[in-house]
Amino acid sequence: MSAMRILAYFGVTPDYEALRESEWSTAGRGPSSGGGEGDGRDEGAGPADLPDTRYVRRILDCFDESALELALRLLDALVGLGGTAGLGAVSVGAADAEPHLKTLLALGFERAARVHTEAVLDFAPAATAALIAAYTQRIDRSDLLMLGARSGPGGDGTVPFRVADHLGWPCITQATEVEPLADGRLRVTLMTDDGLQRLTARTPCVLAIGNAVVSHLRVPTLTDRLAVRGRQPDILEPADLGVDLSELLGRETQTLTALESVDRRRESILVPGDTPRAKAQALFDSRLKSLLEEL
Amino acid sequence: MRFAAVLDGTSTGSTDGTATVVHRQSAALGAFLRGGLDARAPGETLVFYDDEREKDRLIELAPTRDVRLVRTSARAFERMAAHLSTQAEGGQADLFLFAPGPAGTELATRLACRSGGGVLTDVVTAEAAPDRLSCRRYVCSGHLMGRFELSARPWCIGIDAGWTDAGEPEAIEHVVLSDTDDTVAGRPGPFEDPEVLEAPSTGDLAPSRFLVVAGSGAGSRAGVERIAAAAREMGATFGVTRPVAMNAWASMDRLIGVSGARTAPSLCIVAGASGAPAFYWGIEKAGVIVAVDLDEHAPIARDADLVLLDDAVAVVEELAAIVAAEREAR
């Protein structure tokens, strides 16, 4: 079995569920830019009026977290088959990813890097994909890229395919499991539009991870952390990858022009009662009985 | 402006899965053309297929009168995108519409990459102007609606999964404009040995009329299992939120929300879920939503029709007992 070089990409995102509900209202804000087409509708806020998330903790994007754990399991399985493999991780953005990169080093990732940019790439999937592809091809020279099927505030699910297109590689999306075969190929389980399937893939390829049962990244021990305490992730600039980020951002073909609040409110009638039994009975008598009869 | 709706009718591998998947694509595309696209434009449907025997059935599912057929290999998305790119260059369409799902997202993205056009997925509505396409889609895990503009053509649009429950496709008298063979003999695809593992087990969620959903407020796997048992007792379909599935308290195929199923039941009981937008998207078309939760400030308490502030497991079990007693009394 030949050596396999695996790279996992991840993004970090604010924990939106930790934001106060009122933070999401665009009323009274903006538009700071865009919008205002004069059609009489409330255009809400401009794209610069996203809620302030500076005080909210940063978490791994959920599908990216699955990709990282599946990459570790693939590494373990390859070693178990007597093969050799190297595992790296990369993120793109400001310093938010730094603690996660150090955790990954402690977990056995031999390479960890961040492509540094202060530019907000939340709604710039083409630029994000170009940076990931350039790092994969020019710096890491990996032959398997694993990442979440969608991530970030934009979360449009196009990044894995854009990266694959840059690299000229095939892409398997909505992958939920991956295991190595003795001949160096990979057996991949994926969720398609028509249910669960399994395919055999050759590298190089992009694996975009979907709703995997493996959804949590393992936690390193204190010993693991102490073993890599002197190591720091590599920090690269887009120029190190041969990428002109300003030029890339200027070529984005989608532009976010406005943000609108989403009003989901319903009647919200409180069902009375002192005990679970009393409340259940009140609900049944007032609405549920007739609704169930209609069903 | 001319549009092309794209149907991927290549085989899915399962016995009659292809027809089911294409039926769903067709219903969504047809509904979007009627209600989601603000433009009076001529258009046609491009149907990719790999099985000659399925051709007539696929033509019947096209959401437009004019149909072009392209024979190709299953899952050959790069090849399909290359064919679509040729169509775009030839001026046959400048707006390409793709059905919700992974295949539509891949085709839309690969076409845009090849042709230098703009791509947007999960589009709820689109308005065409001579120089741009303005679209709306949810952002920030469903907390906000974003308005986007695409300038570079072709515009490649993956439509939101909310259009999939639009019912039966319209009956149309179809005209087949062309039938092209784009298969490459003897050339292996990038993937081999496809194997269908099991029939989709999420199939009962979308058509459910009575749904009970357990959230992490159930507290434990045991709590979730008690809610599932109560749901069975009441004759309801059972679903869960993403945190419950991620804790492995229930299987992923029970997932409701952006990364799972979108439902439209007449009655939905949400037990112990906060009502995060990414989950709520999966139940927002429910007729009546009943929320059971201890937190009166949770979003679900505001976004439900009826609210019971109490322990979710206890209330749902009491409800099941009442429903069972009522059934026996009859």
List the helices and strands and how they pair.
The complex is a heterodimer of chains A (295) and B (330).
Chain A (H helix, E strand, L loop, with lengths): L3 E6 L2 E3 L43 E3 L1 H19 L4 E9 L4 H9 L4 E6 L8 H16 L3 E5 L10 H9 L3 E10 L5 E7 L2 E7 L3 E5 L12 H6 L6 E3 L8 H6 L3 E8 L7 E2 L5 H19 L1
Parallel strand pairs in A: 1-4, 1-6, 4-5, 5-11, 6-10, 7-10
Antiparallel strand pairs in A: 2-3, 7-8, 8-9
Helix pairs in contact in A: 3-4
Chain B lengths: L2 E7 L7 H19 L1 E2 L4 E7 L5 H6 L5 E6 L5 H13 L5 E4 L3 H14 L2 E6 L1 E4 L4 E7 L4 E7 L4 E5 L15 E7 L9 E6 L13 E5 L6 H14 L2 E4 L1 H5 L20 E5 L5 H4 L7 E6 L5 H4 L3 E4 L2 H18 L1
Helix pairs in contact in B: 3-4, 5-9
How does this structure look, described?
- The complex is a heterodimer of chains A (295) and B (330).
- Chain A has seven helices and 13 strands.
- Chain A is of the alpha/beta class and 295 residues long.
- Chain A has two domains: 4-250, HUPs (Rossmann fold, 3-Layer(aba) Sandwich), CATH 3.40.50.620; 266-295, no CATH class.
- The longest helix of chain A is centred in the N-terminal third of the chain and has 19 residues, at 62-80.
- In chain B, strand 7 (125-128) and strand 8 form a beta hairpin.
- Chain B is elongated, with a radius of gyration of 22 Å.
- The N and C termini of chain B lie far apart (62 Å).
- Chains A and B meet through helix 4, strand 7, strand 8, strand 9 and strand 12 of A and helix 1, helix 4, strand 6, strand 8 and strand 9 of B.
- Strand 13 (269-270) of chain A pairs parallel with strand 17 of chain B.
